[in-house]
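Q: What does the assembled structure look like for these inputs?
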Amino acid sequence: MTTSAALIVDAPSYARAVDTAVDAAAAYYAGGTSPLDDDAYDRLVREIAAWEAAHPDQVLPRSPTGKVAGGAAEGDVPHTVPMLSLDNVFSAEEFTAWTASLARRIGRDVTRFAVGPKLDGLAVAARYTEGRLTRLITRGDGTAGEDVSHAIGTVEGLPERLTEPVTLEVRGEVLMTTAQFTYANEVRTGHGGQPFANPRNAAAGTLRARERAYTVPMTFFGYGLLALPDTDPATADRLGALTYGELMSLTGELGVHTSARTAAADIVAESAERVLERVAEVAAIRAELPFGIDGVVVKADLAADRHAAGSGSRAPRWAVAYKLPAAEKITRLLDVEWNVGRTGIIAPRAVLEPVVLDGSTITYATLHNPADITRRDLRLGDPVMVLRAGDVIPRVQAPVAHLRTGAERPIEFPARCPRCGSDIDRREERWRCSQGRTCHLVASLAYAVGRDQLDIEGLGSTRIVQLVDAGLVTDLADLFTLRRDQLLALERMGETSTDNLLAAIGRAKQRPLSRVLCALGVRGTGRSISRRIARHFATMDRIRAADAAAMQRVDGIGPEKAAAIVSELVVLAPLVDKLVAAGVSMTEPGATPPPDGETVTGDTADGDTGTGDGGAAGATAPAPGGPLAGMRVVVTGAMTGPLERLSRNEMNELVERAGGRSSSSVSRKTSLVVAGEGAGSKRAKAEELGVRLATPDEFAVLVGDFLG
Ligand code: IVH
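A:
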C-alpha cells in the first residue's frame, strides 16, 4: 500500500507528480498527515528532478526541487538568517563526489568533518535574549516561520535560561523520543484523539498545538548557534570563528541539550574514509537509539572551510545529509496472530501486507501485548506505520489514522489459550497460558538444551517432538531419566545416536548452576542475570531460600524483578526437586558460598548495610577476586587463538569467572574491551573514549588461569 513514485512520462504526469510532492511536503511540515512515507517522497522528488533535467524549459516554479524543502507553511516571524535544508547523498560514491565538489569550490581538501546524527524531528530556532528564551520559531518556508513560543517549557533540553546571559539563536531539532511518543499516544487516545503515526508527526502536531487539555514532553537537540542582530560584536565574532565541534561544546555549556551524550554523538573525522566508517557505525546502532534518525549529517568542521564554501539558496554547501535507508513505511495490518512462547507468554504478532523495508520484505511485525494494542487504538485493516532499523524485528509504530477508510474492525483478543485451550492468566500486561511452560513444552525444552544453556548435543527440535509425542518427556527433568531401551524404541534412533545422546545428557548434568538456572527459563532472567544470581548465591538451595530482599542484592536486579523471580522459583520448585533427584548439579564452580548459618543481610561491598530483612538466605557474594576484579568488560568481534571456540556467552562466563562483569555496550564505565576480528563500532567507541583495548590473545594471557 506504499504509494510508489508515479512514472513521469509527459508534462501532465510531471505536473501531477509536482502537486503530489508539494502536498506531501506541506503536510509533512505542517503537522504530518502525508500519505507518502519518506522513502516514497524521496523517490518522487528524484524522479521529478530527472524529468526536469531532460526538460529544463518546462520546470514548474512550484517544483519541490528548486526551493527550500517544506516551504509550504506560511509563517509570520522572519528568520534573521535563512533556515536552510540539506542536500542528500545516498551512497559512498555520492558522498565522495560531494567531498570532491566541495574541495573544488574552496580550492583545498577538507580534512576535518563533523559527523553526527540526522535527527528526525522538526527544525526550530530558539531566540535567547540576555540568556532568556524569548521566542521559539519553526522553520516555515525557511525565510519566516511560525511562532510556537507557547511550547516553551514543554521541550526538554531547551532551557528557559542559559547558564550565561548571552543574546543568540540556538537552532536544532525538536523530536519525541520513543518513550515520549508512546506516552503522547497514550495520553492522546485517552482524551479521545487519534493516535499519531510516528514520533515525527507527534512532535510536529504537538509543537503547533495550542490550548490542549494536556501537555506531552518533547526533546530538543541543538545543532547550530548563531548571532542575532542584538548579539554583542565580540560574541558574534567568536561564534563565527569556532569549529563546529567547539560550537557544540559551547551549546552544551550553555545548558542546551545536544547529541553529545548519545551513542550517535558528533565526532570529528579526519578523512572521508573515517566519515564513511562513522556512517556505518551510526547505521549499526540506529535501532538501539532512543530517538529516530533518518541519516547522518556531515559538516565541514573548520569555520574557514564553512565560510569559503558558503550556501546556496536551498542548502549550505559545507554540509550534506547522508541518508540511511528508510526505516519506516506505511502498510496495512491484515491480521493479528497469537503465539505462545516457551514460557507460556501469549504474544500478539501483526500480519502485514508485504512491504519492502531496508532491503527486505516485511510480512510480520511485533505487537507487544493486548494492553498495548488497546492503548494504541489499533484495528484490523488499519494503515500502519511499520518501523525496521538494523536487524531488529520490525515493529508496528501506530495506525495512520487519517488514512483509515472506516472499514477497520476491532482486533479480537483470545478468550482461551490459542495453543492448548486452557485459561489465560491476565494478571500482568503480558498474558500467559495458565499451563505456563508446559503449554509449549517443545519450545521450552529446545531452549533449555540449547548451546548457551544445558548444551545437549544431538537434541534438536525434531527429536524433542518425538520424545514429547511418545510421552517420554513431560518436563525438563524427564530428559535426565531417559533409558536406553526407551530411546532405541524411537524411530530413526540407532545404537550410536542413542549412546551419543545419553552421553550428552550425562554431560549436561554437570553444567554450572548458572546454565541450569537459565535453562529453567525463569521469566525476567536471561543468560546474564542467571549468571549473576548463580555467582551471588553459589548454590540452588540458597537461591531458593532467598526472599525478594535477598534477591535484590544481586547486581542488576531491582525490586520488581526480584519479586517476580522469587515467585517464579516457587512455581518451579517441583521441577527443580525433580532435577536434583535426577542428579543434575546445582552449584556454581568458583563461587564460594558464604559460611553456613551466617545471616549476612547486605552486600557491604556495595555500601548496602542491609536492614536485616534478608532472612536466612541473605547470602553475601564471595569477595570478588581474579584478574578482572572490579572491571567491566565488553567482548566484541570474532575470537581467535586459545579463545577461538568460545561463544559470546562462554566469553561472558569467562569474564565473570575471572571476577569481572560482562557487558554488551561500551561506555565511560567500561574498563576493558576485548576486540577480536571484525570488531566495528564498539572498538571505535572504545578508542574514542580512551577505554583500554585488548586482543583475544592478550586477554587469554590475562585470564589464563580461568580458561576451562
Ligand atoms: S545542520 C543549514 N544537523 O535536517 C541546515 N541539521 O533535511 C544545517 N537536521 O533543516 C542543519 N539533524 O532540520 C543539521 N545534526 C543535524 C541535523 C539537521 C537534523 C535537519 C534540519 C535540516 C534538515 C534537512
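The two ends are 55 Å apart (CA to CA).
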